[in-house]
Amino acid sequence: MQMDTLTIAILAAGQGARMRSKLPKVLHPVGGRPMLQRVLDVTSAVGAARICVVCPPLDSEAGRAIATAVGERALLAEQREPRGTGHAVLQAQAVLEGHGTDLAVVYGDTPLLQAETLRALVDLRRRTSAAVALLTAIVDNPAGYGRVLRRPDGTVYGVVEHALATAEQRAIREINTGVMCLDADWAWPRLAKLPPRPGRAGTEYFLPDLVTRAVEEGRPVVAHVLDDPDEAMGIDDRVRLAEAEAALRRRINHAHMLQGVTITDPATTYIEEGVLIGRDTVILPHTYISSGTVIGEDCRIGPHSYIRASRIGARCIVWASVVEEAILDDDVQVGPFSHLRPGAHLEQGVHVGNYAEVKNSLLGTGVAMHHFGYIGDATVGAYTNIGAGTVTCNFDGRRKHRTVIGEGAFIGSDSILVAPVEVGAGALTGAGSVVTRDVPPGAKVYGVPARVHGEARHRSED
After folding, report:
1. How far apart are the first and last CA of the chain?
2. 120, containing H or E segment
3. To 10 degrees, the CA torsion angle through 321, 323, 327, 330?
4. Please, is 461 exposed, middle or buried when counting C-beta atoms within 10 Å of its C-beta (0-12, 13-18, 19+)?
């Protein structure tokens, strides 16, 4: 559907006093991203000819913050006085009028609205040549919302605000979400003639009065009813913010489960958008997975795990651990209570057990680090065993240095490797060794400082 004749006004000038925050309401995050950014994503995805964000005065702290958040994604218009939704849209007239036949009005505090819903609303207005197309929802508790009034044949003839509704009208469960699409040429001159009404800030002008005007003129008013009422959820306070977080989490988790991922407790599983998870992977309770993460098939993640911007192969286990900007190849096991920091790369079959930390290091195929220790700025060869309590001393107070451990080495418990240092392939360090010099391949060293005491003889050779 072509949207090159669509203009959009995003209303974001509300003070948000009930948020009780220094941050403008529309910049509070939902799912890790500011609400306004999410709404801009939706309007950008629709492909409008022009988008205008109506914001607080640009010489105010809130206005400057919103302008920074918008950047070049949309044009800006100021609403210097809070005089209602109709007045807010009118502030965008100079920016939007003449640039499209359709005018969509959305809100900066509705982060769950989806692009396909906005497209459907615009398409409905165009197909029916309606003056006004409303986005409505059927809700269990409509208190506080404007009710949609319909004739016996189902056609819309009005919207009545909750405070002005009769007892019979308050029983109506179809609400006006506030999102609408208008015949732009019809709407602009009528916005300037909306009737004044008393409001919290004095005289105000309200968009729903356009419905009354259209009906009086014999123009059609239509409604698109949401399948999911959460889409139109407006955020007024921290309680609603939490409800929006929960709704977004349900939406994301639902999509993953339909793609073959098992989530044993969706209520305690937090998966951000942009995460890819393979089939037959199981996500256990109290797990958080951030955007930019890719997880392969047949993995087991959690419980109590945090994964951030990492790549995890197939058949991996991450149990009660933190993985940040790390790479795990296939068949890797981590945890419990371990931490993979940025730059960690664990090749196939690596096992990092409990209370271990790996940072900016490559652990080769089959490396075993079963117990607590720290490997930082290191390259560890395949099938090396890292004993409990091993530490690479990578920082001398000014610079970081690397440790290199060859294939098949055996690093004894409580070994201290003072970088820069290299331990050769097949070498062995005795328990409690402080290694300050390079160890030749196949050598056995121990002591403080460690010295060569013959050839290595690993326990597997006994």
Report:
1. 74
2. helix 115-128
3. 20
4. exposed
Bond before 196 cis per omega within 30 degrees = no
Phi, psi of 351 (to 5 degrees): -125, 115
Q: Where are the alpha helices (DSSP H) in 314-441?
A: none
Find, among 281, 344, 361, 268, the residue nearest to 308 by Cα. Answer: 344
Task: Please state whether 29 falls in left (phi above 0), alpha (psi between -120 and 50) or beta.
Answer: beta
Residue 87 identity = H
Is pLDDT above 50 for 63?
yes
The answer to whether 300 and 320 are in contact (CB under 8 A) is no
Nearest Cα residue to 176 out of 213, 209, 154: 209
What distance in Å separates the CA atoms of residue 57 and residue 25, rounded to the nearest whole number? Answer: 15
Beta bridge partners of 7: 50, 103
Measure Cα distances from 56 to 42, 180, 416 in Å.
22, 22, 59
Indicate the SS3 state at residue 242: helix
The residue among 311, 308, 276 whose CA lies nearest residue 289 is 308
Per residue in 324-348, pLDDT (tens digit) is 999 999 999 999 999 999 999 999 9
Q: With DSSP H G I counted as helix, E B as strand and the rest as coil, what are the percentages for the chain, rounded to 5?
A: 25, 30, 45
SS3 330: coil
Average confidence (pLDDT) over 316-326? 98
DSSP letter for 362, please.
E
How far is residue 453's CA from residue 406's CA, in Å, rounded to a whole number?
A: 18
At residue 93, the 3 state secondary structure works out as helix
Annotate 323-356 with b (16+ C-beta within 10 A) or e (fewer): bbbbbbbbbbbbbeebbbbebbbbbbbbbbbbbb
- DSSP states along 41-64: HHHHHHT-SEEEEEES-TTSHHHH
User: Residues 99, 286, 304, 371: which is the catalytic one?
Assistant: 371
What domains are defined for the chain?
6-232 (3.90.550.10), 260-461 (2.160.10.10)
CA distance 339 to 354: 9
Residues 4, 9, 12: CA angle, nearest 5 degrees: 145
CB 306 within 8 A of CB 323: yes
What integer pLDDT is reported at residue 458 of this predicted model?
A: 59
> Distance of alpha carbon 263 from its chain centroid, rounded?
18
Joined together, the tokens standing for residue 163 give 């405070």
Closest CA to 403 of 424, 420, 383, 385: 420
**Residue where the block lists tokens 């080495």:** 409
Q: Is 371 a catalytic residue?
A: yes
State the maximum Cα–Cα separation within the chain, in Å, rounded to a whole number.
Answer: 101
**Residue 120, phi-psi category: left (phi > 0), alpha (psi -120 to 50), beta (remainder):** alpha
This prediction's pTM: 0.87
Backbone phi, psi, residue 229, to 5°: -60, -20
